[in-house]
Amino acid sequence: MKANKSLLATILLGMSYAACFAQVSQIELSGRYNPSSKYLPPVDSVSKPGTVVQSEVNAAALINFYTGVDSLNQVRSFGSNVQFRYTNFSRTGYNKLILPADLYCINVGLYYYSTLNQKWAYNVFLNTALNSDFKEVDKNDLFLAAGAVFIREFTPNFSLGFGAIVHNNLGGFMPWPALTVDWKMGGKFRLDIRTPDKSPGIAHYVGVSYAATSKVNLSFAFRPEVISYDVTTNQERTNRLMSFWQLPFTLSSAFQVGDFEIIPSIGFTALRRYAYGEKKVSEMFTEYPYHGLGTNLIYGVGVKYRPFKK
Fold it and tell me: DSSP letters along 82-123, please?
């Protein structure tokens, strides 16, 4: 316990020191809502009655510690991404036993970006997430991810990045490919691919956007995501590692109002599945029964604020 308190004090002291030199470049608040969805049992299992209404609240901030150009004319940037997510499941029937009522994510990431020359750049990052129901908190609630992406700019309108990450969201540490694509087409359209995307788990973003005006942007995106949580057990949940998969498709619009961006969205979640395993390397590829929630609509709204946008 003393060691844990010392580590926490060291982290807080380091964060306080870094905050003296930090500048918050973006603040984002958002919420998502899935109406009542039917419980889906694992394959070859007996159906059980139950529904779930899923609500989600997100808060995030981008923090810039340093951005500048060195003597070799290389652009360098060092910063942090801080995220908080609260997910509530309003449950009936069997879902009261198999699905936790509340889940929390606290994610702190660090990144370093640097150009190598006029065509090449790289980005390295480290993410630390505390994903839990906060009934019991220990080292199993901590999830880590780190990686590097090399970016090649072929033209001012097209860049491609590739690399790899290592994470322990599925139990033990395992590698995962990284890919980014930024392609501006015809002055109005843009293809944006980010694998991985910013998340307290492992998320991906594949989207196409259209700049209707200088202040209105429309987009359609596929945003698959898996987040692992450490949860308490009961007679139905005999393992602690909860893996929660979501496959949402969303249509959104972004309205620029001064330094604010308002983003309403609507779509559908094609898949929501969750299973309970063990956070052990030896159990990484063990097949556990997946429970699910029925396909349903998803509604969302978000607000971004860029206090130092020029």
Answer: EEEEEEEEEE-TTHHHHS-SEEEEEEEEEEEEEE-SSSEEEE
Supply the CATH number for residue 194's domain: 2.40.160.40
pTM (2 decimals)? 0.88
Print the domain residue range for 173. 24-305
Q: How far apart are CA 184 and CA 205, in angstroms?
A: 16
- In Å, how far are 108, 111, 113, 120 from 152, measured between CA atoms? 27, 18, 13, 5
Number of domains in the chain: 1
- 15 in any annotated domain: no
Residue 275 resides in a domain: yes
Residue 16 domain-assigned (yes or no): no
Residue-level pLDDT at 1: 46
**Is the separation of the CB atoms in 98 and 111 below 8 Å?**
no
DSSP string across 148-168: EEEEEEEETTEEEEEEEEEE-
User: Is residue 231 situated within a structural domain?
Assistant: yes
**Lowest-pLDDT range, 2-11, 23-32, 239-248?**
2-11
What are 216-234's pLDDT values in tens digits?
999 999 999 999 999 999 8
pLDDT for residue 118 is more than 80: yes
- Rg of the chain in Å (alpha carbons): 21
Map tokens 């139905």 to a residue.
Answer: 236
Alpha carbon distances (Å) from 181 to 28, 161, 178, 268? 23, 6, 11, 24
Mean pLDDT value of segment 190-195: 96
pLDDT at 3: 47
- CB within 8 Å of 241: residues ≥ 6 apart: 140, 171, 228, 229, 230, 276, 277, 278, 279
The rounded distance, in Å, linking the Cα atoms of 306 and 211 is 19
What does DSSP assign to residue 135? Answer: S
Higher per-residue confidence, 284 vs 267: 267
What whole-number distance in Å separates Cα of residue 254 and Cα of residue 265?
A: 9
pLDDT digits (tens, 9 = 90+) for 11-28: 555 555 555 557 888 999
